[in-house]
Write a structure and sequence with these properties.
Layout lengths: L8 H12 L6 H10 L6 H13 L3 E4 L6 E4 L3 H14 L4 H11 L2 H17 L1
Antiparallel strand pairs: 1-2
Length: 124
């Protein structure tokens, strides 16, 4: 199943750099980060990726400065949660998918899920 908001490998690497940054980043900042991780890319390639990510709504750019600085529109957790919702929404049997998911999480994650569900019950 292809999820519409799925990031390609390079887009994901760029978004990971953006999400991990404490402040907006330029293509050159990301170029340095990726190079330190053993991946050498041209700045023009990264600018193309940023352009695609901006069109997809993942980043916003500050064009008042040079070089342009990019920020994530939403945190990584939001993106991952949206992917989970999208995959679940595409299922014919949501209960079976949820049961499989819950049955496969670690004990620590199960405790966290229970706590989150209890907190949600208290609010609602």
């Amino acid at each position: 199943m292809q999820v519409a908001n799925t990031l390609g490998e390079l887009e994901r690497a760029v978004m990971d750099a953006v999400w991990d940054a404490a402040e907006p980043v330029s293509a050159y900042d990301v170029q340095d980060l990726l190079e330190a991780a053993g991946r050498s890319l041209a700045a023009t390639t990264l600018l193309t990726v940023f352009s695609r990510l901006e069109k997809k709504g993942f980043v916003t750019s500050d064009r008042a400065v040079r070089p342009y600085r990019y920020s994530a529109v939403a945190p990584r957790e939001y993106h991952v949660a949206e992917l989970m919702h999208e995959v679940l929404g595409g299922s014919r049997d949501r209960t079976a998918v949820l049961a499989r998911f819950v049955g496969s999480v670690s004990d620590a994650d199960a405790v966290t899920l229970r706590q989150l569900l209890r907190a949600e019950d208290l609010r609602g």
